Amino acid sequence: MKKIKAKLTSPHVWIFIVVTALIVPFSAQARQDNLQQEVRKYRTSHEHKIIDEFVELLSIPNVSSDHVNVRKNAEHILKMMEKRGIATQIMETAGNPVVFGELKVPGAARTLMFYVHYDGQPVDPSSWTETHPFKPTLRPGKLKAGTAEPKPIPYPDPSTKYDEDWRIYARGTSDDRAPIIGILTALDALHEGGIPLRNNLKFILEGEEEAGSTNLFPFLREHKDLLTCDVLFMCDGPTYYSGAPTLFFGVRGITSMQITVYGPNASVHSGHYGNWVPNPGIRLAHLLASMRGTNGRVKIEGFYDTVVPLTENEINALKAIPSYEAHIKENYGFSGTEDYWPSLLEAVQNPALNVNGLNSGWVGDQARTIIPSSATAALDIRMVKDNDPKDMVQKVINHIKQQGYHVVYAEPDLETRMKYPFLARVRHTESGYKASRTSMDLPISKLVIRALVAHSDKKPVLLPSLGGSLPIYMFEDLLQVPIIGLPIANHDNNQHQPDENLRIGNLWTGIETYAAILMLGED
Amino acid sequence: MKKIKAKLTSPHVWIFIVVTALIVPFSAQARQDNLQQEVRKYRTSHEHKIIDEFVELLSIPNVSSDHVNVRKNAEHILKMMEKRGIATQIMETAGNPVVFGELKVPGAARTLMFYVHYDGQPVDPSSWTETHPFKPTLRPGKLKAGTAEPKPIPYPDPSTKYDEDWRIYARGTSDDRAPIIGILTALDALHEGGIPLRNNLKFILEGEEEAGSTNLFPFLREHKDLLTCDVLFMCDGPTYYSGAPTLFFGVRGITSMQITVYGPNASVHSGHYGNWVPNPGIRLAHLLASMRGTNGRVKIEGFYDTVVPLTENEINALKAIPSYEAHIKENYGFSGTEDYWPSLLEAVQNPALNVNGLNSGWVGDQARTIIPSSATAALDIRMVKDNDPKDMVQKVINHIKQQGYHVVYAEPDLETRMKYPFLARVRHTESGYKASRTSMDLPISKLVIRALVAHSDKKPVLLPSLGGSLPIYMFEDLLQVPIIGLPIANHDNNQHQPDENLRIGNLWTGIETYAAILMLGED
Q: 3-class SS at A306?
């Protein structure tokens, strides 16, 4: 580009630039189409083999606490990976093992690492709809709410194609064994298509994500050197509602707290004392109302001060995403949203103060005409990049103090109760997840976006941050590497619930998505 | 007085007035002292007989649902009353019987009726402190909280006097069998002192007050003619904290309601949706905060409009009552009160909006990081004279509407949920107790006050209204008669709880109080 710039005055140069601008994308597009076509060709001609291999994996129970079967998963996955030429090992932790794999490519420009977890949530077979969580079952569509329809169908014979809208029901189909079959099939397709790899690949498959990842971080610390890479892809979670290939560049952080305000030390008769003994229910109402509007806007001093704003690119990426707000409203039966931010997508790019629960005295049939002795609110704070959990909690505490409360951190004794007319107890988690956000403007981010845009039928959805929280910051802090989320499951996969499922079409798209990412690089 | 007025110009008249003004009260005082002395003389010389008779009554179990024993109470009380020359009958209702008695006095100026209930609250003997609820036990003082001290003592031999601070522990000692022995002993004392009765007396003793008085009001309607009187004394409840003779001229009314506000139709993830899906917890907080300050002042339009203000006499009566606020604060472990009214006593003369309970999502160990689907508050409204329960509830509903809510009265369906951005469900009791308040300025009220002032050691406590609620308005509506509350039990009698007790001194004072009221009349 330097050379061209130097010749900007020459009219020939302009012609060169214009022609290049037209040809280079076309030529890249041609190669990219070739990649997508090769992968799709492989998939359409191997659907039965792919599904068979997936079903075999899904048949091994994988509940995190079932250590014997979880290890069987690890051993099975090791074999699947070795079959693809990946140097794989089962690495022990204090809990379930990590499956680690590496595929070195001579002359590779960079190393990509993929994180997947192969364990699953607990299951209660009796609450699954006419299926067993570890007998993967094919249904010709999504189970209609509250019914057992559509009924399971047999796996088709080799002459019948899988319909994209069919779904496989089993624990761990979507969360999170789909990426395993997706990535390995992408490798098969590249191999069969004679497309040489251009990036070193590393794979880290965790076996106790659903049990809180207790042993993962000691593992990461211990094996930091093994885990060097240029970018880490978190292959977990669902895509955006539209089903388009989705990248998320961050997650919100989270910390929780509980606030209790006090009235009398035992419930008292609301007739004898109503209007005089302090009512903790109304005190809590005033305190919460002072913290936040019904529109979501937090009124606590400094709550938004440390927010790192989105860049123009990130804002544009959000604006390009089709809205599913009407769908969500209909699904959850409400019409009025909190409207301080113009859209759901923008709202979750900002810190939130959520009331998770309220409790005081009794309601419903148990209601009694009393002034309760206390009232408690459970809150969480969802944070964005550079919000510090401790600082955010402290801001809430400062706010409570500004409302005239004396704040304590344990159940107050009589002396304290008699000393302070307004008394609040705060309990908060010592730890919280920091938010994490990889800039979309980094060269590696641009490269990833470009690869996905080039090799996808649908325009990819680029999310600066998910609304939810994952301890990605720990990977970030330990490995000092950009982290990008790369989910493939359908959004309505019943994650963490009975009847977990994967839509076949999502797996097909996922294979192409992973192939595009595996082949990442300047075209 | 007319005659005197006519002669106001004569100097002799002035002398007459001054002398009369000095002599008449002295002469009345002399007679009154005589009455009190006669009653006290009788009591001090018959303490053992009085307590023996009381203990015999208390030994008969009286739990409302124990119909057999409740009837034994009725039969026993009938005999006690007949012994005093009261024409007594056991009158059937659909439930436990009413004991009705009448004592006609030739030439009586008026008829006084006394209401007492002889049934008691349920008992769980295992939770009583080393005593059985129907084996009346004497202790040399009040049980210290959380201990079995002081230990029971034997009933003393006839040569030993009862100490005023000793207490009898049994169900129904205070609530509400003490007035039975109190009134009958007062009659004995008047009889023994040769003091002729001057008022007709009627007695209505209910047998299922603690079971909700279901059959009392049909009984009152049926026997309305039998129940004519000039004043009805409700002999139930405790005296003021000071233990001074207490009259209450009214009670607050009560009605209850529950308000539910809605978010999504199921809890949703606070990360995915926090800042956008409406949070019902915060909505409820804002709604409640808009209704009422933390100082007790209700901000609902018209909430105080129908309040009948206290008269000057009633205000002065309140001001004359010693404050026990410091005691209550210490007892219930709080220091800051709601302070819109200058004192507890004045606060309960006004309507109140009490938050009885709050519920939304989960708190404590069960807390989860969600946006709950709804939030509910249980409220009661305590009303004063002329507040109409339906009108007060409607004012709250109007207020909710003014905050932008669409109000429904059943669980909203999807269509309703989708139509109204702010949706509140209100549940309220169809019935409520109206308040009741007999004016202290009525001649009969003045007469009662005068009698009690004249015959008491301590200055009587005159309460325009109790803070609590009783369905006195039904007696008022049916019988169209002034109603005055005349309790004698100690305030710390453990009413409705294990270890119910009566302080002996309160019975002694009660006997004198009842004698004064029985002898009510212009001196």
A: coil
Q: Are residues B210 and B269 in the same domain?
A: no
pLDDT of residue A11 exceeding 60: no
- A85-109 average pLDDT score: 97
Number of domains, chain A: 2
Answer yes or no: do A270 and A280 share one domain.
yes
Q: What is the mean pLDDT of residues A183-199?
A: 97
CB B205 within 8 A of CB B78: no
Residue with tokens 């860049």: A311
Find the domain containing B243 and state its range: 12-251+436-518
Is the pTM higher than 0.80? The answer reads: yes
> In this predicted structure, what is the pLDDT of residue A33?
62
The minimum CA-CA distance between B465 and chain A, rounded to whole Å, is: 10
**Interhelix angle B443-454/B11-58, nearest 10 degrees:** 80
Q: What is the pLDDT of residues B54-74, one digit of tens each?
A: 999 999 999 999 999 999 999
Nearest CA in chain B to A271: B468
Q: Do residue B407 and residue B452 come from a single domain? A: no
Query: Is the distance from CB of A465 to CB of A212 less than 8 angstroms?
Result: no
Residue of A nearest to B350 (CA): A275
Does B467 sit within 8 Å of A369, measured CB to CB? no
Mean pLDDT of the residues in chain B: 92
Q: Among B428, B453, B483, give the residue marking a domain's end.
A: B428
Is residue A229 located within the same domain as residue A95?
A: yes
- A416 and A293 together in one domain: yes
Sign of CA dihedral A440, A442, A443, A444: negative
Residues A216 and A262 in one domain: no
Decide if B328 contacts B354 (C-beta within 8 A): no
Last residue within a domain, chosen from B428, B448, B477: B428
Q: What is the CA radius of gyration of chain B?
A: 27
Contact A336, B419 (CB under 8 A): no
Do β-strands B501-503 and A501-503 pair in parallel, antiparallel, or remain unpaired? unpaired
Q: Name which of A329, A359, A368 is nearest B359 (Cβ-Cβ).
A: A359
Residue A202 has pLDDT above 70, yes or no: yes
CB atoms within 10 A of CB A233: 25
**Facing B380 at nearest CB: one of A277, A341, A369:** A369
Between chain A and chain B, the number of residue pairs with CB atoms below 8 A apart is: 329
| B119 belongs to a structural domain | yes
Tokens (6 digits) for A29 = 């597009």
Q: What is the ipTM of this complex?
A: 0.88
Closest residue in chain A to residue B283, using alpha carbons only: A294
